[in-house]
């Protein structure tokens, strides 16, 4: 099981009232909600291994260089001099992130990030590694771009409606829902655009036309090549729109596609791992008033034995 940690703790923060507080008065709604989500996922899907994937760079420079609008709407309006782009994060969430990461560590749950890359890239790299080894993978995220990693061995548990109502996306489910092969979802997203990531898309090409184009012609690179050569089966209208957006289409796929080549080394993804620290887990539960959530997580892990 590979989880998109930021996607989940943002959802937890907005899903649990900030009236949920530690004994010292600090809000711990994101920590409680995130811990409960992990417990639910482990109980329901009983994974053999687990990695909480982290954003070490939520807006990597290489993606911004290709498409400057990438996630630009999420940047804090005034950035301190000399610092990279800062993501606009609720003030009450920021101090909770180190606590929920400490809970993961104390519970013996692996977390992993790579400098300069997003959690999507870590997920894509690990999913590709396990898939190539013939091992089944569940990816948990509310980011639809990760539909692109779905294969016969890799399933996306999409959290768009919450962990209680997960949408299980397999290649068959993706084909039924979007009318495209899962591997071509990033190409579909590039054509259609995605306001949530600041991707403009190709003017005049909406969801339906984008799905038809990738289903019929393949990747963005293939679509561009056919438009340039005047492929007769491509309508003049689509060809004209594609050629007008040629500069964008030449770079956007590398923005949307998750990287599968990160150097993550050997990953100790055992569940639970050897570094579990029950005493620290107790201490965190006591200090931050997480008792019931910690208990649920412990019960979920004990159920795997």
Mind telling me which CATH architecture of the largest domain this is? 3-Layer(aba) Sandwich
Report the top-level CATH class of the largest domain.
Alpha Beta
Count of DSSP helices?
A: 14
Q: How many domains is the backbone divided into?
A: 2
Task: Let me know the largest β-sheet.
Answer: 6 strands, mixed
Give, in order, the helices and strands: EHHEHHEHEEEHHHHHHHHH
Mean pLDDT: 92
Q: What portion of the residues fall into strands of 2 or more residues? A: 5-15%
Helix content: 40-55%
Instruction: Tell me the name of the CATH homologous superfamily of the largest domain.
Output: 5'-nuclease
Which ranges are low-confidence, i.e. pLDDT below 50, for 5 or more consecutive residues? Answer: none
Structural class: alpha/beta
Written account of the structure:
With 305 residues, the chain is α/β, with parallel strands linked by helices. The protein has two domains: 2-178 and 258-302, 3-Layer(aba) Sandwich (Rossmann fold); 182-256, DNA polymerase, domain 1 (Orthogonal Bundle), CATH 1.10.150. The protein is 45% helix and 7% strand. It contains 14 helices and six strands. Strands 3-2-1-4-5-6 form a six-stranded mixed β-sheet, with helices on both faces. Strand 5 (154-158) and strand 6 (167-169) form a beta hairpin. The chain is elongated. It starts with a strand and ends with a helix. The model has no long low-confidence stretch (mean pLDDT 92). It comes from Jatrophihabitans telluris. GO terms for molecular function: exonuclease activity.
């Amino acid at each position: 099981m590979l989880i998109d940690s930021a996607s989940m703790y943002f959802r937890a923060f907005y899903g649990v009232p900030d009236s949920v507080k530690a004994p010292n008065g600090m809000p711990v709604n994101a920590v409680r909600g995130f811990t409960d989500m992990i417990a639910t996922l482990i109980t329901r899907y009983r994974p053999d291994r687990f990695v909480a994937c982290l954003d070490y760079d939520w807006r990597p420079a290489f993606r911004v260089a290709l498409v400057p609008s990438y996630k630009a709407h999420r940047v804090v309006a005034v950035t301190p001099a000399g610092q990279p782009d800062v993501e606009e994060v609720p003030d009450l969430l920021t101090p909770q992130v180190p606590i929920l990461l400490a809970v993961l560590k104390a519970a013996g749950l692996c977390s992993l990030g790579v400098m300069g890359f997003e959690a999507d890239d870590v997920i894509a790299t690990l999913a590709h590694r396990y898939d190539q080894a013939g091992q089944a993978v569940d990816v948990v995220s509310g980011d639809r771009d990760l539909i692109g990693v779905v294969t016969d061995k890799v399933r996306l548990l999409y959290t768009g409606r919450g962990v209680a109502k997960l949408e299980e996306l397999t290649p068959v489910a993706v084909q039924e829902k979007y009318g495209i092969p899962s591997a071509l979802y990033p190409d579909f997203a590039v054509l259609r655009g995605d306001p949530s990531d600041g991707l403009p898309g190709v003017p005049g090409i909406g969801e339906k036309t984008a799905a038809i184009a990738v289903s019929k012609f393949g990747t963005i690179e293939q679509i561009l090549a056919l438009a340039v050569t005047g492929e007769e089966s491509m309508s003049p209208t689509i060809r004209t729109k594609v050629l007008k957006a040629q500069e964008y289409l030449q770079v956007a796929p590398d923005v949307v596609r998750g990287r599968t080549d990160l150097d993550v080394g050997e990953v100790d993804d055992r569940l639970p791992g050897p570094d579990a620290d029950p005493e620290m887990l107790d201490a965190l539960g006591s200090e931050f008033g997480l008792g019931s959530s910690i208990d649920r997580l412990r019960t979920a892990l004990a159920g795997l034995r």
